[in-house]
Specification:
This protein is mainly alpha-helical. Helices cover about 75% and strands about 0% of the residues. Helix 1 crosses helix 2, helix 4 runs antiparallel to helix 5 and helix 6 runs antiparallel to helix 11.
């Protein structure tokens, strides 16, 4: 039954990705008078892309891996688990390989849960780290979009009141979230929602509460992870901005700062194969790019991801470790096998 659901989800992802890409390719073919002419226009957009924009964009992936590893290290340290930055950095490269080439079976998060478990001794604690990463990432997206809106409102002579209202609303929302997550408040709310919500949604709320509760008594750890998440999401926004500049697009920086977090959120939530098709739709509908350039942004991003995924595969082959799950020793002839997972 579980395998059937996995295959159905894979079919859904493939349908969404191929459906969206097919739709935009067809619209380009109609606009330019045929698939061949559309392809010529598409390749022309790449041929004119200057490397002085593309190279920094590609290097931002390294910065992203660095920030991800720092956040992971912070959250593990919050559970009194200590390991080296280099080890976590290598695991993120491995995760990039699994995310890009085995999306339907073993994802990057699964690899990291396995490695965290070997350090923490608990699958549950390892899953909590991944959940906290997701929660702080979502909160960071909200903060970035809200700050962008406030800046745009203050920049308008007649929208100052709206800016203060939005700023107050976001602050109140975060204060409410902190209150609701309190160890004495959250269980009571969960008992009430258990009678109302569907079981799967209730389970998600319970898992989120369990993840936050672990770090609630260590607010410094949670705040540090949240700060890194904000920088990480800003790095992603800037990465896509550089790609847009490479394609001779000139989006308004503040508007881009407001809308790009929505695109990133869609990439995190819409079922698709590594977000393929969703990026194009996001850049076309939200950022306002023509289908040609929206698809070009998608293609450049996919090329970068494949490149770093291949590097991750190389790291996977070269980075030998102790198959017994010890916390220190590395063997020379035992590669990581992420399929061997059990609680």
């Amino acid at each position: 039954m579980i395998m059937k659901k996995k295959y159905l989800l894979l079919v859904l992802r493939l349908a969404v990705s191929f459906g969206l890409i097919g739709y935009f390719v067809n619209s380009m073919a109609q606009k330019y008078g045929g698939t061949g002419a559309a392809f010529d226009q598409f390749t022309g957009a790449f041929s004119e892309a200057p490397v002085h924009w593309l190279i920094p964009a590609g290097l931002l992936h390294i910065l992203g891996f660095t920030l991800l590893s720092i956040r992971w290290k912070i959250l593990l340290r919050g559970q009194d688990v200590h390991t080296t930055f280099g080890r976590l950095f290598a695991y993120y490269f491995m995760a990039a390989f699994f995310n890009n080439f085995l999306p339907s079976t073993i994802g990057g998060d699964t690899v990291r849960v396995i490695e965290s478990r070997k350090l923490t001794g608990s699958t549950t604690s390892s899953v909590m780290v991944v959940l906290i990463e997701r929660l702080t990432g979502l909160m960071a997206l909200v903060l970035i979009a809200a700050v962008g809106l406030v800046i745009s409102f203050f920049g308008s002579s007649n929208q100052g009141a709206q800016a203060w209202f939005l700023l107050g609303g976001v602050s109140a929302a975060f204060a409410l979230a902190v209150f609701l997550a309190h160890p004495k408040v959250a269980p009571r709310i969960l008992r009430l929602t258990d009678k109302i919500l569907p079981k799967k949604i209730q389970l998600l709320f319970e898992q989120a509460h369990a993840a936050v509760e672990v770090y609630y008594k260590r607010p410094g750890t949670l705040l540090a992870a949240q700060g890194v998440s904000v920088i990480l999401q800003l790095n992603i926004v800037f990465y896509f901005y550089l790609i847009a500049k490479a394609l001779h697009q000139d989006p308004d920086p503040i508007g881009f700062m407001v809308k790009m977090p929505i695109v990133i959120f869609l990439l995190m939530t819409v079922p698709a194969v590594n977000g393929i098709g969703v990026r194009t739709a996001g850049f076309k509908e939200l950022i306002g790019f023509a289908p040609l350039y929206a698809l070009a942004v998608e293609s450049i991003d996919v090329v970068f991801r494949i490149f770093y995924g291949l590097l991750g595969g190389l790291v996977f082959l070269l980075y030998k470790r102790d198959a017994s799950g010890g916390q220190g020793a590395f063997l020379k002839n035992r590669p990581l096998d992420p399929r061997k997972i059990s609680d």
